[in-house]
Amino acid sequence: MSDHEYTPTSKVGKWFNDRLPLLTLANHLTDYPTPKNLNYWWTFGGILTFCLITQIVTGLTLAMHYIAHADMAFESVEHIMRDVNYGWLIRYIHANGASMFFLAVYIHIFRSLFYGSYKSPREIIWIIGIIIYLLMMAAAFMGYVLPWGQMSFWGATVITNLFSAIPLVGEGIVTWLWGGYSVDNPTLTRFFTLHYLIPFLILGLVVLHIWALHVPGNNNPVGIDIKKPSKDTVPFHPYIVIKDGFALLMFMIVFAFFVFYSPNILGHADNYIEANPMVTPAHIVPEWYLLPFYAILRSVPDKLLGVVAMLSAILILAVLPWLDTSKIRSAVFRPLYKQFYWILVADVLILGYMGAMPAEGLYLLIARVATAYYFLHFLVILPVLGFKEKTLPIPLSITEPVLGGSTNLAMAKNKESLDK
Amino acid sequence: MKNLIKLFSILVLFFFTVTQSQSAEKVDYLKTDWSFKGLFGKFDRGSLQRGYQVYTEVCASCHSMKYLSYRNLGEKGGPEFSQAEVKAIAASFEVIDGPNADGEMFERPAKLSDKFVMPYDNVKAAQAANGGAYPPDMSVLVKARGGGVDYIYSLLQGYEDAPSGMTLDEGVHYNKYMYGNKIRMSAPLSDDLIEYGDGTKATVEQMSKDVTTFLMWAAEPHLETRHQMGFKAIIYLIILTILVYFSMKKIWSRVESEV
Questions:
Q1: Buried b vs exposed e over A77-93: b needs ≥16 C-beta within 10 Å?
Q2: B29: number of CA atoms within 13 Å, CB side?
Q3: Stated pTM of the model
Q4: CA A100, CA A289: separation in Å to the nearest integer?
Q5: CB-based contact B54:B169 (threshold 8 Å)
Q6: Measured between alpha carbons, how far is A103 from B12 in angstroms, rounded to an integer?
Q7: C-alpha distances in angstroms, B166 versus B172, B175, B222?
């Protein structure tokens, strides 16, 4: 929290603020000192807030017209698409909004990885972020089940069946999750309930995420600690607000293209076929944003170990602050880490591609190598790199490069050329 | 700004890979010009009306369209039959209503608010009449098939003699665009099968195109509104983005830092 005292100018304001310091909070949020060298990768926090609110607002509207019943869900979605005023618009925003949400969250996470934003003193922000990411996946998965199409039904069957891999109690847990002996109406109604609940849990965690962020303040592309407020910072409003707003508008243009011109391209055609327990689709594929983990799941021959590998792939991120032994945050000053970072990005993209392909032959082999490399990156490369890597000298402040004459100038110039 | 361009190109690249990987199993479908594609795409009204004729005279004997109502045929953005025509179309179908005051079900001519009458009472009846295969409901058929309109258009024209060495069971036909090449439906269209009200020559190609257009509308009845609204929304966003960009430049000119 900012250190300077805030006193409302009006008497009423002061009376109110003494009892509930909302005005102090508002003042803190507008004055919040932010590093002035943040680049556009930092605008995705604001974009994600927009995504969450969009999903909640459109979701509430859809819930007013949707019927969570195995016999009526599909029909009620068609009712929304045809007869509800602008129902098609609301549904397409919600469905594509999920994809845009994940696109933004992946950029947000990989920005963190590049600039070392997860490192001390920001570990709690990072861990809350991972929990939000997990909840997002749960919400997205359950949301995909609600239209009760073929992919909804069979996706739900495949994913819930993963729990049967747990020794001894697995089968019991699956029956308990389903509320019966197969995915059916009880499964649909509970998924609807949870799909409605989770966004509000995420909202709460987002508040904690931002609260935890405001204690140490933002990391920045140079990755050094800065004095706040100082000549290195700008107040959040108007500087960051307008910059985030600009980036958000660019993002919304991409979003609008999907909603208005190819609303179904990110979905699967089979989900426009009503769920049929008697007919299994040729390929059961999750939504694109879950594909890398799906590839990891399938690349392990044993079911239980596959599930363990898939979960570990996500949970390993939570201990990342301790796996990365380097004291330097930003990859700008870590020439070796920078290369491994881009290999990891490529590795995850390859996993995603393999997740969409059938698990056989060369595809399976590549998926296995990529899975092994994924874990190698976090468990071996990162810990070792912290000790072995020769890092570049870091500047003393983020304004230093522009001041000139310092011993770090050559290095700062070097950094600039890297950015180009 | 440099960063922004980088970011934007990564986004584009990313979605290119995503869409590519999703359409990995590509088949070369027959191509035709669809008037409803593109930023300003609209349905060809004549084609929609002819398409309805094909549907009702050919497809409807087996395929239901249970999410559509007769009123939809007269709504904006659709075939736009006149109100009198739609009423006449609806009245030509009998629906079961009731129970009445005596507790009896009764038949009456369909009204605008009624859903399209289904050819069979239920899925089992449909299967029984079609050698075990269920003719799928056509309301969202175009969106339920990977190739979309191109697939349906090609399938209707894809009937050929089975290649030598391939044996087909009784009631199974060869179609080069069908998944697995085996289809229960016999070739539904042949030249001059129907007589178009507007005098257009009813070739297989023409009927395929018309009925596919009609199915596209059935699956996306608000497509025209969507395209019109999308264009306005994106123009609005672009103008706003430019204005915000200059405001941002002005605000950030107060500090020594590049945006």
A1: bbbbbbebeebbbbbbb
A2: 20
A3: 0.92
A4: 10
A5: no
A6: 12
A7: 12, 12, 43
Chain B contact present for A365, CB below 8 A: no
The torsion angles phi and psi of A388, rounded to 5 degrees, stand at -90, -30
Q: What ipTM was reported for this prediction? A: 0.91
**A15 sits in which H/E element:** helix A11-19
Q: Given an 8 Å threshold on Cβ–Cβ distance, is B145 in contact with A269?
A: yes
Q: Is A417 on the interface with B (CB under 8 A)?
A: no
Burial of A69 (0-12, 13-18, 19+ CB in 10 A): middle
Q: Determine, for residues B179 and A282 on separate chains, whether the beta-carbon distance falls below 8 Å.
A: yes
Helices (H), B23-79: 45-57
What are the residue boundaries of the structural domains of chain B, listed by start? 222-253
How distant, in Å, are the alpha carbons of A67, A147, B121, B221 from that of A80?
10, 11, 25, 12
Q: Which two tokens stand for residue B8?
A: 């934007």
Nearest to A101 by CA among A199, A238, A212: A199
Average pLDDT over residues B52-66: 96
Q: Which residues of A touch B39 (CB under 8 A)?
A: 261
Nearest chain A residue to B72, by CA = A82
Count of H-run helices and E-run strands, chain B: 7, 4
Q: How far apart are CA A86 and CA A119, in angstroms?
A: 45
Using DSSP's 3-state secondary structure scheme, residue B175 falls into: strand
Q: Which stretches within A83-184 are classed as H helix?
A: 87-115, 123-145, 150-161, 170-178
Please, what is the angle between helix A22-31 and helix A11-19, to 10°?
A: 100
Show Cβ contacts of residue A13 under 8 Å, excluding neighbours closer than 6 positions: A23
Whole-number pLDDT of residue A404:
45
Tell me what pLDDT residue A2 has: 44
Pick the CATH number of A39-284 from 3.40.640.10, 1.20.810.10, 3.40.1190.20, 3.30.530.20: 1.20.810.10
Beta-bridge partner residues of B96: B107
First vs last C-alpha separation in chain B: 7
Kindly give, in sequence order, each residue whose CB lies less than 8 Å from that of residue B34, ignoring residues fewer than 6 positions away: B41, B149, B213, B216
- A351: amino acid identity, one letter: L
DSSP A168: T
| Cross-chain Cβ contact A265/B237 below 8 Å | no
Kindly report, residue by residue over A196-232, the tens digit of the pLDDT. 999 999 999 999 999 999 999 999 999 999 888 888 8
Query: Residue A304's pLDDT is what?
Result: 94
Tokens 């935890």 identify what position?
Answer: A212
Percent of chain B exceeding pLDDT 90 equals: 78
CA closest to B138 among chain A residues: A273
Tokens of A68: 């969570």
Is pLDDT of B2 > 80?
A: no
Torsion of CA A400, A402, A405, A406, to 10 degrees: 20
B50 touches A at CB < 8 Å: no
Q: Smallest Cβ distance to B17: which of A246, A254, A349? A: A349
Residue closest to A259 by CA, chosen among A138, A90, A114: A90
- The residue ranges of every structural domain in chain A are 1-31, 39-284
